[in-house]
Amino acid sequence: MSTADDTPNPDDPFEPSDDPEHLDDLSRELDDLVDFANLEREMTEAANTTPSGPYAGQSAGERKRMEPPVGRVASVVPGHFGDRLTVTEALASRGGGNAQPNRPLFVCLHGWGSNEDDLAGIMRYVAPYSDFVSLRAPLVLQEASPRGFAMQQGAYSWFHDAVPVGDDLDYDAYAAACAIDDWVTTNVGENRDVVPIGFSQGGTLAVELLRVHPQRYRAAISLSGFVAPGNVPATTPYDDILADLNIPVFYGYGELDTVLPKYMIYETIAWLEEHTWLTARGYRGLDHAVSMEEFSDLRQWLLDQDIASGII
């Protein structure tokens, strides 16, 4: 019976050996052949990637967005629907919005033709002892200008029209929500609860933030807002995830709203019912505006959700 030759071959780098120098050489050769650090990183990323859908192959540990094509040319505000935006101006409550760092931070979002002072004023009726930041929309309708001994406030917009519809709304809502979410990511600690609150366009974006980064936001408040239809798939990558999270949403609207058609209000309520834990309130005799009755209901809701004290 013949057997293999057991004589060590000094020229074979993988020949078993007890020689420490030989083992060191072998280890170095293996490192040259395989990038173990990169292999481990790739294996970890593979274990945490989304297997399918518009975000297929992207890491679950990072929020990477698909960039949908920009929409058509707008006729009201110069530019294209869906142009990328950046938020640069913010008004903060006392302490720079950090007076109560262990409590939720409100992110206030104004409507068409308004500015960051608008929602800051509402906060004293809704949650006067809570921290907030009020953001200015990036699209300029009218710059602030001197007026006698004072300054005339500027007028700004999040969208390229007052109430865009269809694909136009999908593009604009997604772009604006991404800009707001980028601001939050840069300026707010990742462990702090954040609650967006907005009126009209801002109300739309309070909900849209849940669609672009659902795990980040504790709840959302939409006052006379409207929901984007989601006809452009790249603008709705997380809708299925959102439906499973049951995030609390307060939606208030005027039953005599002359800006939003009734069908938009009904579509908004239906979508929110399907995707969030919704509390909806309609107010008799109220146009496209807010009311003290609405603020009272909202304060109670904030108390029930343990977001604010409900005290004014």
Structure commentary:
With 312 residues, this protein is α/β, with parallel strands linked by helices. The chain has one domain (65-142, 152-303): Alpha/Beta hydrolase fold, catalytic domain (Rossmann fold, 3-Layer(aba) Sandwich), CATH 3.40.50. Helices cover 34% and strands 16% of the residues. It has 8 helices and 11 strands. It has a 7-stranded mixed sheet with strand order 1-3-2-8-9-10-11, sandwiched between helices. A two-stranded antiparallel sheet has the order 4-7. Helix 6 (239-245) links the parallel strand 9 (220-223) and strand 10 (248-254). Helix 4 packs across helix 5 (201-212). Residues 46-62 have low confidence and may be disordered.
CATH architecture: 3-Layer(aba) Sandwich
Shape assignment? globular
The CATH class designation is: Alpha Beta
Going across the major beta sheet, what is the strand order? 1-3-2-8-9-10-11
CATH topology: Rossmann fold
Q: Helical percent range?
A: 25-40%
Using the CA coordinates, give the radius of gyration.
Answer: 27 Å
Oligomer: single chain
**Poorly predicted sequence stretches spanning 5 or more consecutive residues:** 46-62
End-to-end distance, in Å? 97 Å
The H-level CATH homologous superfamily, spelled out, is Alpha/Beta hydrolase fold, catalytic domain
Number of domains: 1
Mean pLDDT over the residues = 86
- The helix tally amounts to 8
Helix and strand sequence = HHEEHEEEEEHEHEHEHEH
Mind describing the biggest β-sheet?
7 strands, mixed
Query: Would you tell me the structural class of the helices and strands?
Result: alpha/beta
Number of strands: 11
Strand content: 15-25%
